[in-house]
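Technical note accompanying the year-one report. For the benefit of new consortium partners, we illustrate the data format agreed upon in the data management plan: each record pairs a sequence with a structure-token string. No post-processing was applied to the example shown here.
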Amino acid sequence: MVAATETETPPANDRRDGSARPFSAFERLVAWRYLKPRRKEASVSIVTIISLVGVTLGVAALIIVMAVMNGFRAELLDRILGLNGHLVISPIERSLDDYEAVAGRVAKLPGVEMVMPIVEGQALATGNVGAGAGVLVRGVRGEDFVELKSISGNIKEGSVEAYLTGDGVAIGSRMALDLGLVIGDRIKVISPEGDVTPFGTTPRVKSYPVRAIFEMGMSEYDRSIIFMPLEEAQLYFNQEGEAQVIEVFVDDPDAVDAFQVAIEKAAERPIFVSDWRQRNQAFFSALIIERNAMFLILSIVVLVASLNIISSLIMMVKEKARGVAILRTMGATQASVMRIFIMAGIGVGFVGTAAGFLLGLLICLNIRSIQRLMNWMAGADVWDPTIRFLSEIPARINPYETFAVVVLSLSLSLLAAILPAWRAAKLDPVEALRYE
């Protein structure tokens, strides 16, 4: 009867402090006391602090790198689509000698923002200094140049009005710096496809005054592109009355598939339509692969930090063996002991994750200032735009990816805490107290 009564009646301490409830105040209190640093348990405290710092740095690094990768892709996409059309109309069977009529019909389609006939070609440009550089000459209409806000909205020297006079060109800021050109100077453009003579084809050489200098913030474009009036480009490349392609800008670049059939019908002539995803597929696919690879690699950093949680908890179980045995003799169940150590492990993971989230968010929001500070400390540009295309480090936080990072860190912390907590729950009170 006594045994039956002891089995059916919960221990007094369970009824008093409510430890029978999962994650009760009693269990939270014990878990917190186990995490508090004590002089006698310096080694446990040091390992716990290392685990906390490891989780913090791992989460922060993962958030920062993913934000920079997202910002890099978004900035490149904005720059590329800000200069190049979302869809490109190329002629089939005959040249685009009717480009004005085709452009007019396509421009009337719903969702089409701008239609831009283009004549372009490779050339060599020389200025006041330097040996010259290979450039891409793009001939566009004056009204299209004005609508191209990525260029006309970023004029650093000169003006759009001066360019629209039609007797000069617009060049990028890095090209102007490389060739030593300022507004009013003449840039010499040399094309291998010149006039045909009895002695062969002679290069075509012509000089143009610089009327505008733009800066997109993408070094590849700022260094290599020359904008020229469409009529002048037609004469220079021997394509009078023709356009090479027609670029179409739409209001939703991600929905270009919906425009292809309508554009083919509106053209009323044989054409081939390609979109920006097809023309830049390899480039953006490489960015996606790189981003996924970085996420996987940095997730391993968080995993290693979580393994440190296992080490700290195992040491804690050994140090607290006597206390765990006393709790068991006072009526604490195995499940209660297991929950205590799980909360201790999750506590380290939660604090580390929260600190890492705040640190990553702080760095991402101030990354431009950090870049300028690093440039000042290094005495040089640590972010070379000639290598990385963009002039500044971009960072764009994706809420869903950040949430995934937080969940990943907390999940690994939980998994890391299960094994030491299970070992603590299986601890035999008799063995633990035998030599006490």
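Partners are asked to follow this layout when depositing records. The mean pLDDT is 80.
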